Amino acid sequence: MGSGASKNTEEEEEDDCSNGGGGGQLYVSLKMENSKVQGELTPHIYGSVPVIGSWDPSKALPLLRESASISELSFVVPPDHETLDFKFLLKPKNGNTPCIVEEGENRLLTGGSLQSGDARVALFKLEGDVVLEFRVFINADRVSPFDLAASWRAYRENFQPSTVRGIPDVSINPDSTAVENCPSESLELDLEHYEVPAPAPSAHSYLVYAADNAENPRSLSASGSFVNDSTPRAALNSPKDSGVSSDGSPSAKEMKVIVPDSLDAYSVSGVLSPFQQKDGQRGLFVDRGVGSPRLAKSVSASSFSVDLKLDAQSKNSMPAAAGAVAAAAVADQMLGPKEDRHLAIVLVGLPARGKTFTAAKLTRYLRWLGHDTKHFNVGKYRRLKHGVNPAADFFRADNPEGIAARTEVAALAMEDMIGWMQDGGQIGIFDATNSTRDRRNMLMKMAEGKCKIIFLETLCNDERIIERNIRLKIQQSPDYAEETDFEAGVRDFRGRLANYEKVYEPVEEGSYIKMIDMVSGNGGQIQVNNISGYLPGRIVFFLVNTHLTPRPILLTRHGESMDNVRGRTGGDSVISESGKIYAKKLANFVEKRLKNEKAASIWTSTLQRTILTAGSIVGFPKVQWRALDEINSGVCDGMTYEEIKKNMPEEYESRRKDKLRYRYPRGESYLDVIQRLEPVIIELERQRAPVVVIAHQAVLRALYAYFADRPLKEIPQIEMPLHTIIEIQMGVSGVQEKRYKLMD
Fold first, then answer.
1. Which of 460, 572, 643, 727 is catalytic?
2. Where is the CBM20 domain (predicted)?
3. Which residues contact 153 (CB under 8 A, 6 or more apart)?
4. 523-574: per-residue pLDDT in tens?
C-alpha cells in the first residue's frame, strides 16, 4: 500500500482535487521457496517505484518468513500500474559480507504477471561456483477498498499488538519508574516562553461583555421605530410616545419588524427533511450522513424524491444535529403542538445574579448541539434606544416614563425574537430582569400560539457573590464605561438594584426552572415546574452541572503517531520518536502548570497513542474515555487520503463537499462525534479542578468549538496542531484561551 508523510492526518483538511479512477486494486504476493537455504541468508527485493524506489542494496526490502522454507513480500498497485522493474537478492546477516544478487536480467511485472524468461526460478551464485536455486511464486488478486482496509487493520493488529491493553480505565501513577528527562525533553524556559498567539476570537467570544454578544436589534431596520440616541435623557419619553399602550402592551405600529423573504429550497443531502406528499401525509428522511446517495419514500408515494422543499414550519424545528437531537426534532414536528416547535427561555432575576452569564453559556451549549439558538439581551436594546448610563431613578417603580421606556424595549426585543423564530429560528434566550408578573404576563401574551415559554429564574443569597458580580458589572458594562469614579458607579448600581428589589415578584406561573444559589459551586438547588420534553430536559440537566468556579482545561493532541508519519487515517498505532519526546515535554509542562492543583486529572481516549502520551505524567488520576476516541473512519480506517481518492472517489468527493455531515461508510460524521461528546462536555462543566484532555484532532476540534463558541460549519476546519497545548480558562468572566507550543 502506498505511504505518505503528514503531521496532520487523522482528519485533515483536503485541497480541492479532481476525482481519481475507480475500481479495486491489485494485491500482489511474491514468494520465494528453498528448503535448503542457510539461515544466515535472507531473501530481499530491490528495484523501481512503487515496489522499492531504489537500486541500492542497502535499502532493499526483506521478504517476511511465512514458513521454514517460504518467504513473502506483498504490496498493492493499481490494475493499470506501470511496469515494475526489480530483482531478488540475498543478504547475509553479517553486514560486512556483500549481498548476492540473482543471476539474469531484471524481472518485469505488468498487470500482475512476470514478463521475464524463466520467471519461476531465481538463481544465486555463491562462492566456489555453488548455485542456489529458489522457486518463485506470484499471485495477483483484485481486491475492493473495503477488503483492503480490513486486511490492513488485521495486519496491524497482528504485527504490532497494543502496548496498553490491560491498563484499567481509571488509574493513578501506574508507572512509578518514570523515564528521566534528557535536555531535549525538558522545558528549559518558563512556560510563558512557549506561549504562542491564539486564533482571533469568534463573534461570540467571552473576551468582551457577554451582553454585547447578544443579537443586534432587528427593529433597527424598521423605518423610524428604533433610533440610537446617546443622550441618557432620551429615555424619559412619555407613554404617548413610547409605543406602549395604556395597558402596558406594545402598540402594533411600533412593533413592526422587517423579516427576510420566503425560505430557500432545501436539499435532503445530509439534513433531516420532512416533506409534504400529495395525499397530505408526511414522509421523513432521517439520515445525518452524506456519504452515498440515499432516498426516502413515503407509504403513499409512487416515486422516490431527492430534491425537496421545506415550508417554514418544517424548517424551524430541524436542527443541524444527529442522534437523539434529530430524533427529538422529529417527535416535536410530528406529535407536538405547533408552538412547541419553538422554545423561548425567559430569564428572570434581580441584577447581578448571573443572568447574562447563564444566558450566554446556555446559548453556547445549545448551538454546539446543533440547535439554531440566539441570545436577545433587553439591556442592549435599552442602550441602543435610550443611551447608556441612565441614572438609578430611571429604574424606579414610581417613574412612569422609565417604566414605559423599559416596557417598550422589552416588547421590541420579544417581537424581534418571535419574528426570528417565524423566520427559521428554534430557541430564543430572552435576557432581562422580567421581575414583575405584569411584565411576564405581557411576554406570555405575545408568545401565545407562537412559541413555548420556560422561565429561568436565578436566585442568589450569597452577599459575597453578589458583591463580586456588582464590581464586575461596573468594570464591564457599557452603562458605566464613561464613569471615572468606580465607587460612584458601585453606589449608582446599588441604587438601581434597590429599585428592582422593591417590586420583585418570584416566578410562580407557567413552566419554570429556578436556580437557587447554584452559581456558588457549593451546592444550591434547582426547582422545576411543568417541564417536559427532550430539549427542556437537556437544558435542566446542563444547568444542574454548571457553576462559576475558575479552573483551567488543557486540550492537546497525542504525540505524533506512526500513522501520522505514514499519512494514514485512524488506526491504533504507537507514538513515534518525536511523539515520545513530546510526551515527556508534556509531563514537564503539566508538572509546572498544575504543581499546586492536587485535584487535577488526566483524561485520554482508549487508543494507545493517547495513553502512551500520558504515560510520563505522574501524580494525577488518569481516566480513559471511549467517547474521546478519534472519529471512526469506518472502512477507510488505515487508508491514506490519496488511497481514498483513488479507490473511493464518490466518498472522497462527498467528504470534500461537506466534512461536517459526511459520514464514513460504517463510520462516523463530525455530527456523530459531537453527540457522543456531550457527556464529556457535561462532565467538564461539572469539574471544579483542572483537567488535561489528551485526545485526537477531530475530537478536539469539536471540544474546542464548544468553548470558543465556533459555528458547527467551522468545526472541520479548526486548526489543531500537534505538540501544542490549548489552555481554556473557565470562570466568572467567561472563557479565555492561551496556547503553548512545546516543539515543532
1. 460
2. 20-126
3. 571, 637, 638
4. 688 999 999 888 899 999 999 888 878 889 999 999 999 999 988 888 899 9
Q: Give the DSSP letter of residue 351.
A: T
- The answer to whether residue 13 is catalytic is no
Q: Which of 371, 558, 696, 723 is catalytic?
A: 558
**Could you give the 3-state DSSP secondary structure of residue 78?**
coil
**What one-letter code names the amino acid at 197?**
P
Nine cell digits for residue 177: 519508574
> Are 29 and 734 in contact, with CB atoms under 8 Å apart?
no
pLDDT in tens, 313-337: 444 445 666 666 667 666 655 555 5
Who wins on pLDDT, 300 or 214? 214
- Residue 283: is its pLDDT beyond 70? no
Instruction: State the Cα–Cα distance between residues 444 and 348, nearest whole angstrom.
Output: 13
Q: How far is 480 from 63, CA to CA, in rounded Å?
A: 77
Active site residue 431: yes
User: How far apart (Å, rounded) are the C-alpha atoms in residues 534 and 557?
Assistant: 33
Q: What is the pTM of this model?
A: 0.69
**From 287, 630, 643, 737, active-site residue:** 630
Q: Which helix (H) or strand (E) holds 378?
A: helix 378-386
Q: Determine contact, residues 51/84, Cβ cutoff 8 Å.
A: yes
559, 580 contact by CB (below 8 A): yes
The DSSP bridge pattern shows strands 734-741 and 427-431 to be: unpaired
pLDDT for residue 344: 96
pLDDT for 251 beyond 50: no
Q: In sequence order, what are the residues at sequence separation of 6 or more whose Cβ sits closer than 8 angstroms to the Cβ of residue 227?
A: 385
What sign does the CA torsion over 392, 488, 351, 378 have?
Answer: positive
Q: Is 261 left (phi over 0), alpha (psi -120 to 50) or beta?
A: beta
Q: Say which residue the cell 395525499 belongs to.
A: 279
Please give the helix or strand (H or E) that residue 419 lies within, else none.
Answer: helix 400-422
Radius of gyration of the chain, Cα coordinates, nearest whole angstrom: 33
| Cis peptide leading into residue 550 (ω within 30°) | no
Q: How far is the C-alpha of 351 from the C-alpha of 517, rounded, in Å?
A: 14
Q: Which of 431, 651, 668, 727 is catalytic?
A: 431
Distance CA 639, CA 653 (A): 16
